Amino acid sequence: MPKRADQPTDDPAFGSFDPALHPPIAFSDADWTWFVDRCTALNIPNAPTHRLALEALYGHLFGVNRWLNLTKLTEPRDYLKLHILDSISIVGDSRLRHMAEGTPCVDLGSGGGYPGLPLALWYPRIPWVLVDARQKKVEFLKVACELTGNEQASARHMRGSEVVIKALDLRRRCQLVTCRAMGQAAEILSEAAHFLQKSGHLIIYKGPAFAGEEKAAAAKACENLDFRFISERKVVLEEGDPERVMVIYQRIH
Known about the structure:
single chain; Rossmann fold; 35% helix; 2 domains
């Protein structure tokens, strides 16, 4: 378990989000080559150019995770595969290929920052807003956004349903909402509805268990919330892995 920040310690890194106290951690050449090769296999462009930024994000996450519970995945290969590659596996989809500069995108329930941080890195001209209901995680995310080099990336402390109170500038003005590992699809549709403009898209990262009751409940929610189901994009991160399912919806009105 990560050490709690309020426990006595002489280590200034505990309780701090300062990147200077959580410096970059270099990936081995073997791990990096594996990652670039998998990006190529999944038609994800520009991976080689992002090594330094990803090492900075990894070092910062690893350091803060010692005292703030952000992730159970701390080995470099696991980080590159299950946080970064998983997050950017949607990059080849046409809905991301033609995003409008200056129109915000929201990562809902961002937590440790995935998929929002990698997407902010891959799309540096898009204002990404990473939303989370836990203040400490938002403090972490604000600093992590700076490490992406995306000057328009930011983090906000709120729930999706609080957008009318805390973020009128985002209400019905976003072109894309992403969400990974945050509850049932029907609930996510309800929260995303507050953010998305007409014709905006919601992408929910799911596993193979999505097929069944959750998918049926989401279809009902679509009828009530003015969404339509677009597609399921299925991805295998590495041979032998279970399928990842990116479920895509569009706001109709």
